[in-house]
Design goal:
The protein is built from 23 helices and 25 strands. It is an alpha+beta fold. Strands 2, 3, 4, 5, 10, 20 and 21 form a seven-stranded mixed sheet that branches. The protein has a five-stranded antiparallel sheet with strand order 12-11-25-24-23. Strands 1-8-9 form a three-stranded antiparallel sheet. Strand 11 and strand 12 form a beta hairpin. Helix 14 packs antiparallel against helix 21 and helix 18 runs antiparallel to helix 19.
């Protein structure tokens, strides 16, 4: 059945129109919500940045770096709070920004170009457009270390310096003495560091530069660099609202900074400073003493004292040094010119002759040895150990010194110092007299027996004692020495290379390597990592890390053979030994070895460097020392007295009170 067609009443038609209207309103609402969501989520970052560029600024509050103390808590490096001028860019036109820069340059006594570069507003001194380095909303540092007059001028005249705010900033403060200056290192701004050091270059490539601020001080060398992540704190900030002149009118939020951790070093203040003073006086004496032992070019010395059982370094001296307070001010190009001769830590890397004051310093530097040089006869204890371990000799082997030892036909003979013939030698007497001929006989005997295998084993043994490999100390730039005998063996003769290397020639090592080597001899082949930090504490002085002895390796030498070598080294300091005039005032015996290493310098010929190693007490070693004096002459004269002084100081500071 067909139903009749229904006609909507006017009331029904009104309801239908109302439903359509509600649907339309609902769709508009959905579109509006979606748009607002996009603004909030998709475009929020952009609007946040626009807000930051206008009324709201986040002013960083720098965290103080941790302090550095000696082992007893004597301050070495601290911080000082100084006034700093920062710029929060305003909406002013370019001509007003340029006028502000000109007034700043006048008040702060800075070149206009430098002020504009710091403000980073995209203008040069003539008002021309230049590229910006950072976004406009970043705070920019104009000058630190403001004087009281500069602070007053800026604070009391805000209308003349729109956008300028004065804040307190922690800056590194160094002592006025020379305490281990190269070991401590120094800091500079992150802006400069990120273009020169890989660590900071990597940070600069991260978002927001990995949290670093361009004007933040960061470690550049020494302990300041090696412990950068511990010493650096966590910055705070203030979220503020500013007016049209860039002045803060309201602090909306404040997050306080967290100071960095502090370091207690293993270095002893008195031992370090007295060693530095003694070295300065001793070198002056060597240059002016007259006679056959005068050393007119003895201007440098490098010394390390390292505990045998812990690896803790109690003194580390690289001389000449410099006054670290230079980093508390602007360092001029002239300052850098002079620093290049003294800024390197010569105990771990090549440091040059101090040529400052000469008319042609670059030419002078190349006519003198650097700090990494042949270790000379200080190598002989290890040569004897290797001979014993390889069954080439026994502790009771006797050998008649010929005075001149020919290891091959048509080659110059090996001679003892001064051309001496020491008669019948055994291992102990060979060490006491420092016989080159005995060592060359021993080394070439080994090579003839084992050929190339002897050189490989020789290399392996030296590495086990820390020679030719990194010591493991936490300092930037450590070198692992040069093993010239290896290239001699490849290019010329393995036999000749072994002959030279057997008594300490054709191999060059750092002073710290020699100290670690001496400690390993004292420790019967146990090689420890050198330690410079005793403990790390937080801002509440809570210990968060404490140094423990760390064994790097154990030498493959029978422990009983060390007794023979120790007796030989003790004999060095007894009547008839090469250092018999030293260590007489101590209540125990000292095991030592002198070294007079020869080095050919282009344009000058052969020079003699003074090298010395020792450990004490000989029967229960606690301290090992190594000293290098380039062009210092005979080992017992140039370097020996410095070693003696260090052991005396260690006895006074660490042993004498314990004995009572």
């Amino acid at each position: 059945m067909i139903r009749p067609k229904h006609h909507m009443t006017p009331k029904e038609m009104s309801f239908q129109r109302l439903h359509v209207l509600w649907l339309f309103v609902f769709l508009l609402f959905v579109i509006l919500v979606l748009r607002l969501s996009w603004v909030q989520l998709g475009g929020g970052e952009r609007y946040h940045r626009l807000a930051a560029e206008n009324n709201f600024k986040q002013i960083p509050v720098l965290a103080p770096r941790g302090n550095i103390y000696d082992r007893n808590g004597k301050p070495i490096v601290t911080n000082q709070s100084l006034y700093t001028a920062i710029y929060l860019e305003t909406d002013d036109p370019k001509d007003r920004k340029l006028a502000t820069a000109k007034r700043l340059a006048q008040v702060l006594h800075l070149p206009l170009e430098e002020v504009l570069q710091s403000m980073d507003v995209g203008l040069d001194a003539k008002g021309n457009d230049v590229p910006r380095r950072e976004p406009p909303y970043y705070p920019k540092k104009i000058k630190d270390r403001l004087t009281e007059r500069e602070v007053v001028e800026l604070v009391e005249n805000p209308s003349l310096f729109p956008g300028i705010n004065v804040i307190m900033e922690p800056l590194r403060k160094y002592r006025n003495d020379t305490f281990a200056v190269q070991t401590i290192g120094y800091v500079r701004s992150f802006a400069g560091a990120k273009s020169s050091l890989k660590k900071y270059k990597s940070a600069a490539e991260k978002p927001d530069q990995g949290g670093y601020l361009d004007w933040e001080q960061v470690g550049m060398d020494g302990i300041e660099y090696s412990y950068q992540d511990q010493l650096r704190g966590k910055h705070g900030y203030r979220l503020v609202r500013v007016n049209s002149s860039g002045k803060v009118v309201q602090v909306l939020k404040e997050v306080h900074p967290r100071p960095g951790n502090s370091l207690y070093l293993t270095l002893d203040e008195q031992m370090q400073l007295e060693t530095e003073k003694f070295i300065e006086e001793h070198l002056r004496h060597l240059r002016t003493m007259g006679g056959k032992n005068q050393a007119p070019y003895a201007k440098s010395a490098y010394a390390v004292a390292m505990e045998v059982k812990t690896g803790k370094i109690r003194a580390m001296v690289s001389y000449p040094d410099y006054d670290p307070s230079i980093w508390n001010r602007r360092v001029s190009p002239k300052d850098y010119e002079n620093l290049r001769f003294v800024i390197r830590n010569g105990t771990i890397e090549e440091a040059p002759f101090d040529a400052s004051g000469y008319d042609n310093p670059d030419r002078v530097v190349n006519r003198h040895p650097f700090s990494v040089l042949p270790l000379g006869s200080t190598f002989k204890p290890l040569m004897v150990l290797m001979g014993l371990q390889e069954k080439l000799i026994t502790p009771w082997t006797y050998w008649a010194d010929p005075g001149k030892f020919y290891y091959a036909e048509a080659t110059p003979p090996i001679r003892n110092a001064g051309g001496h013939n020491y008669g019948v030698l055994n291992p102990i007497r060979a060490l006491q007299k420092s016989s080159n001929t005995f060592m060359a006989w021993l080394g070439t005997k080994w090579y003839r027996r084992d050929k190339e295998k002897a050189l490989k084993k020789f290399l392996d043994y030296t590495h086990q004692f820390g020679l030719g490999v990194p010591t493991g100390v936490r300092l930037k730039g450590e070198q692992d020495g040069t093993e010239d005998y290896r290239s001699i063996a490849k290019r010329f003769s393995g036999l000749g290379a072994m002959a030279l290397a057997s008594f300490g020639q054709a191999q060059r090592y750092t002073t710290l390597q020699l100290a670690q080597y001496a400690a390993t001899l004292a420790n019967k082949g146990v090689r420890l990592r050198p330690q410079l930090v005793e403990k790390i504490v937080d801002a509440n002085n809570k210990v968060i890390e404490e140094t423990k002895p760390e064994v790097l390796n154990r030498a493959a030498i029978n422990p009983r053979y060390f007794d023979t070598v120790t007796k030989g080294m003790v004999a060095v300091t007894q009547p008839g030994g090469t250092a018999s005039q030293l260590f007489k005032g101590l209540p125990f015996q000292v095991a030592a070895k002198t070294g007079t290493s020869e080095q050919d310098i282009p344009g000058r010929g052969r020079v003699e460097n003074s090298v010395f190693i020792a450990f004490a007490p000989a029967d229960n070693p606690q301290i090992a020392v190594a000293v290098v004096v380039p062009e210092g002459g005979y080992g017992a004269v140039g370097a020996g007295p410095i070693a003696e002084k260090m052991i005396q100081l260690y006895y006074q500071r660490f042993m004498q009170n314990q004995a009572h």
